[in-house]
Amino acid sequence: MSQGIDLTGMVLAASPSGEYDKRVVLLTKERGKITAFARGARRQNSMLLAAVSPFSFGTFVLYEGRSAYTLVQAEITNYFAGLKEDLEGTYYGFYFMEFADYYGQENLDASPMLNLLYASLRALENKKLPDKLVRYVFEIRLMVMNGEFPQDVIYDASLLEATRFAIQYVIQAPLQKLYTFLVKEEVLTELGRLQDRIREKYIDRRFKSLDILETMLK
Q: CA–CA distance from 6 to each of 9, 29, 135 (Å)?
């Protein structure tokens, strides 16, 4: 058997596989988005039982196979337990992970995306920040990373000046200062309408978690 490799990452999605196993999708710093199987992880006495849940962030030890990885060990440093206590926040988190899954690719340095996802989930736990604002910031920044956000909207005179300033800030701000601002309700509403149009234009799929989230918010 090949030597195990240590990868830093987060569980984006998990699903049953066979009677006792789990299939997980990981976004990793070193190898981008990968699929791994955790043998026996659904057994109640498995050391991987909690580690293969969505939101789990830490170091994962895996063996590389021809078409997938086998997860054998994990050291989780953040389960985002606070986020899971809030149903609405949980679904925002699920959406963020599904959005990251959409853009994630294998064998690429995913450090910027992983750092953004981690910071955004932390921002969702901050009750001083509106969840919608965190969502729009996350969407914009991730689309910018992947070259799909039309940055010329900051010159669109039909938008409020405060909206254009907010977008410019999201595009340019260092990650550690990305979630350090608030906007008025009218700006948040305009930002949401704009981002919905941009997402629908440039992304060719629907997100199940977003559909559920929007139904909850109605």
A: 10, 10, 30
Letter for the amino acid at 166?
Answer: A
Q: Which of 66, 65, 69, 89 is nearest to 11 (CA)?
A: 69
Same domain, 92 and 164: yes
* pLDDT, tens only, 58-110: 999 999 988 889 999 999 999 999 888 888 999 999 999 999 999 999 989 99
What value does the CA radius of gyration of the chain take, rounded to a whole number of Å?
A: 18
Angstrom distances, CA of residue 92 to CA of 3, 45, 54: 37, 30, 13
Its domain, for residue 17, covers 5-78
The pLDDT tens digits of the residues spanning 183-196 come to: 999 999 999 999 99
- Same domain for 96 and 70? no
